[in-house]
Amino acid sequence: MLQPRSLSLLTLAALALLGLLALTGLLRLRFNYNFNDFYPTGDPDLAYYQDYARRFGNDNDYVLVGLEAPAGRTVFDADFARRVDAFTRFAQRQRNVRQVVSPTTASNPIVEGLGVFNVPYLHLDQLGRDPASRARDSALIYRTPGLVGNLFAPDARAVAVVLQTTPDLKKPPGDTLLAALRGELRRLGVGDEQIHFGGKMVAQSVFVDRLRVEMAVFVSLSVLLVMGLLWLTFRAWWGVVLPLSVVAGATVGGLALVGWSGAGIDLMTALLPVMMCVVGIADSVHLLTRYVTETGEGTPTVPALRISMRESMFGSGLSALTTSLGFFTLTASHIRPIHNFGLYTGLAVLIAYALSFTLLPALLVLLPRPQQKFGAGRSWDGPLMRLLAWVLRRRALIVGAAAVLVVGALAAASQVRIESRLLDDLADDDPVQLDFRFFERAFAGVRPFELHLLPQGGRTVYSLDVLRETEEIEAYLQSRYGLRFVASPVTVVKSLRKALNGGALAEYRLPDSEAELQRLLRRLRPFRKKPEFRALALDDARQGRLTGRMPDPGSTTVARLNRGLQQFLRTHTDPGVLRTRQTGSALLIDKNNQNLTRDMLLGIGMDVVMVTVIVLALFRSFRMVPVVLIPNLLPIVVVGGVMGLCGVPMKVSTSIIFTIAFGIAVDDTIHFITKLRLMLGKEPTVEAAVRHTYRLAGKAVIVTSLILVGGFSTLLFSSFDGTFYVGLLIGLTLLFGVVAELTLLPILILHFYKKPRVGRARRLTASEK
């Protein structure tokens, strides 16, 4: 049989080999922010949109460049207009730019004879020297539909250049394009305060860059905080280094799994190292606390370690199971980043547990025995026993206060609303958010809208009755829904009619008769080749697209608008003529909100079932189930009330908080009741067993809770709102949880567990030994 030192060396060698293997996974890690990952996987609407995008293109493959005129000038200033034109020409030459729509290249087509003449709306060569020409240009622009709010701001103080980019452009080429565009604008003398960028590619670039920085900052802060708390707890270098070794190993293992899977580090998985710094250390603290107590009583190293492992391993295993389950329940989410975060963090928690009872004991055996005085490790006994005595004297007060708190929290939690926006994770004063707000204020906005047009009965999107119904839908969307820019096959036909009638604005309308429409359609071919028109109908005209942009009013308002739109389509559209289906990237993001409550309740429900099974297996008593659940569900209810009082909405990032917090908070309860189960076999009464358990487990409960709360508090420095609220709300949940653990739990045990089968518990304990 191997000696403890030999076994420890073999263990360390095996773990070192696994560490080298894990490094291959780390080398494959990549940062990733793919907007499409937030679509609900497996949803029929996603499959529909993917098919729609293959035919018409994605609705978010564009970059908006907003340029403000210098102070005191308008967009019709000759020098400013020339700079916009130079930038437009530069953008057209860029590698991943498919098309550029700009105020300086927009033109009014006129058909004369067999030719099409494109008359520019802005006559650049005359702006500076012919005031009459400038007045004519501005008058025509501000009367022409589709220009104001799309390319020109209503106050004539800014213009927008729209760049259609390569589909699903990734970060490296996207960053290169953005850098080139910014560089050219600076070369042209356009100040940074005049430049605004909007679109998916912009957000994608910013998110990934900040992920790198914040991940490093959070891990550094968490490590420093944990080191400080561990030092205050154990007052020895090994009390700091050993738990951190376990955390480092678990973090490397979890990230290696991410690397091997190819999932990448996104907005959610970037939290994994922080989670492990605070969650993965709990098992080590429980084991070391018990070990310090035993060695302080004079027990030799190896026997002390055996006792500590025997008393901690089972409880830590159960707590690791409940914590990992809290993360694993997130895999039920239809949102891929949340699914991946739950999966890999849950696996990392199990790795931390395995290392706590392999790496940590091996190092303790090989290291010199801690030098402690007899009785060390009991400095917390006096304060803990005084706290317990105070709690037991004021049982009625504590229970009453908890009941009042729950009632108030439930009332406040009823005010929590489900609400999200496309850039929800950016703070209101974030530069990217401000740029997007600029486009909402000065132009049509950045939220895309898509409606699939499906003519019926052999009709095409250019059939007169289909066009009239489409026009009626457009009118509703602009007057009632909030679209500020809209384009459809109606746009094509109206533009053609205007072009065939000398470009007169009065002729921008649908034809009056079928005969006139047929004459127009015979002249349509040159127009249908234009990229902006070709994207609105398939070549056979059997399907079409109504597209637009609008400000983002939030998911709750959009849901109400969608209900109104569906009601309008049912009552004002003849399904025998035209069928429609709303689709698009924004709609898919909004659909995530429909599943938030279900996913949250499913996660907490699974956690509750698992904890119930554990309690029943340990105590064979249903009376112990509320003893365990009440102290851990109460903090979740209280934090729900905090969300309601502070107006924090339920959204993708905050919906995961309750499941994770419950899984983490219940750990200390699991440790407490597993030690209580052992003490029931040693003590003559339940109260004596509770007192003994409170003394043994109290220190570890407080220390691990402080580490958890402190670790999550580092997330308060995040520039992402979602990350900020994860830190704030989980920290509050755990803070309320430790208070409930130290006050309500002993009261509930003494109230519900009156007649333990002590003899059976004693036999179980003896057999375990």
Automatic annotation (TrEMBL):
<feature type="transmembrane region" description="Helical">
    <location>
        <begin position="215"/>
        <end position="234"/>
    </location>
</feature>
<feature type="transmembrane region" description="Helical">
    <location>
        <begin position="341"/>
        <end position="367"/>
    </location>
</feature>
<dbReference type="Pfam" id="PF03176">
    <property type="entry name" value="MMPL"/>
</dbReference>
<feature type="transmembrane region" description="Helical">
    <location>
        <begin position="626"/>
        <end position="650"/>
    </location>
</feature>
<feature type="domain" description="SSD">
    <location>
        <begin position="250"/>
        <end position="366"/>
    </location>
</feature>
<dbReference type="InterPro" id="IPR000731">
    <property type="entry name" value="SSD"/>
</dbReference>
<keyword id="KW-0812">Transmembrane</keyword>
<feature type="transmembrane region" description="Helical">
    <location>
        <begin position="396"/>
        <end position="413"/>
    </location>
</feature>
<protein>
    <recommendedName>
        <fullName>SSD domain-containing protein</fullName>
    </recommendedName>
</protein>
<dbReference type="InterPro" id="IPR004869">
    <property type="entry name" value="MMPL_dom"/>
</dbReference>
<keyword id="KW-0472">Membrane</keyword>
<feature type="transmembrane region" description="Helical">
    <location>
        <begin position="313"/>
        <end position="335"/>
    </location>
</feature>
<dbReference type="GO" id="GO:0005886">
    <property type="term" value="C:plasma membrane"/>
</dbReference>
<feature type="transmembrane region" description="Helical">
    <location>
        <begin position="267"/>
        <end position="292"/>
    </location>
</feature>
<feature type="transmembrane region" description="Helical">
    <location>
        <begin position="241"/>
        <end position="261"/>
    </location>
</feature>
<feature type="transmembrane region" description="Helical">
    <location>
        <begin position="600"/>
        <end position="619"/>
    </location>
</feature>
<keyword id="KW-1003">Cell membrane</keyword>
<feature type="transmembrane region" description="Helical">
    <location>
        <begin position="656"/>
        <end position="676"/>
    </location>
</feature>
<feature type="transmembrane region" description="Helical">
    <location>
        <begin position="696"/>
        <end position="718"/>
    </location>
</feature>
<feature type="transmembrane region" description="Helical">
    <location>
        <begin position="724"/>
        <end position="753"/>
    </location>
</feature>
<dbReference type="InterPro" id="IPR050545">
    <property type="entry name" value="Mycobact_MmpL"/>
</dbReference>
<keyword id="KW-1133">Transmembrane helix</keyword>
